[in-house]
């Protein structure tokens, strides 16, 4: 991981850009250093470096120590201790918000639905749906997307969620009830369906022209998406039980079935 990555992660955990740079400079120094040295090593402007160091001291990420000639030097809280402190503070905030935040949420006038602008946004929202599932998960996925979702899906299974999936190609989920089927190029894109508890769903596609999709908390739409996966699975099971030739014969003798499938 590069220094830039470290700075970005520290900022995600609540430090400002200057604070993260000053903290990394303190850690990299390996000894107490003064504000001038911090500014020189970190790129934080000298005009703001002492204010920045004061903020680090206030949050407990650094300490003031007396240097030579009564000058003030700064020593960082060790990274392991800092990360553990951040973890405790983060977990504490999450626990507090679990009870407090729902009390300020207004009921939507209509079920939530919104577009997803690209593949990353769609997969991130799909991970949210997987993480929020408590009863069941229905998925229709291709290997690339399955690999991204696999960790969350396995965690869901471990907490007792019933996982049912259709996988186009290799089974990357390795959990729950998964039926694989051969890749199909007829649509021209890879369809993704993820349904949690039949109350929220992601439906979208990945193709050469990019990715598109929607998230919905409309239970009617979520139920329809789940039924799509369930019926696809049922057809796989039927083909396995009676054999592909017998299934084709059945379709040939029942045009209404052939029209539907």
UniProtKB/TrEMBL annotation:
Residues 10-80 form the Transcription regulator TrmB N-terminal domain. CDD domains: PLDc_like_TrmB_middle. It comes from the Bacteria. InterPro entries: TrmB-like, Tscrpt_reg_TrmB_N, WH-like_DNA-bd_sf, WH_DNA-bd_sf. This is TrmB family transcriptional regulator. It comes from Actinomadura barringtoniae.
């Amino acid at each position: 991981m590069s220094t830039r990555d470290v700075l970005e992660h520290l900022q995600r955990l609540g430090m400002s850009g200057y604070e993260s740079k000053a903290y990394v400079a303190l850690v990299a120094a390996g000894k107490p250093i003064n504000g001038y040295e911090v500014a020189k090593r970190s790129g934080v402007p000298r005009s703001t470096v002492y204010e920045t160091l004061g903020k680090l001291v206030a949050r407990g990420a650094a300490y003031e120590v007396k240097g030579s000639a009564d000058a003030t030097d700064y020593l960082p809280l060790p990274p392991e201790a800092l990360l553990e402190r951040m973890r405790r503070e983060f977990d504490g905030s999450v626990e507090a918000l679990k009870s407090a935040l729902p009390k300020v949420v207004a009921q939507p006038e209509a079920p939530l639905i919104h577009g997803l602008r690209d593949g990353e946004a769609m997969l991130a929202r799909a991970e949210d749906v997987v993480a929020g599932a408590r009863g069941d998960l229905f998925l229709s996925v291709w290997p690339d997307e399955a690999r991204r979702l696999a960790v969350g899906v396995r965690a869901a299974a471990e907490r007792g969620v019933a996982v049912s999936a259709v996988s186009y190609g290799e089974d990357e989920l390795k959990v729950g009830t998964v039926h694989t089927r051969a890749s199909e190029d007829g649509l021209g894109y890879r369809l993704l369906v993820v349904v949690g508890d039949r109350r929220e769903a992601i439906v979208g596609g990945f193709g050469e022209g990019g990715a598109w999709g929607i998230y919905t908390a409309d239970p009617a739409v979520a139920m329809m998406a789940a039924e799509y996966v369930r019926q696809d699975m049922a057809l796989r099971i039927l083909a396995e039980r009676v054999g592909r030739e017998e299934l084709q014969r059945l379709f040939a003798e029942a045009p209404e079935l052939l029209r539907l499938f």
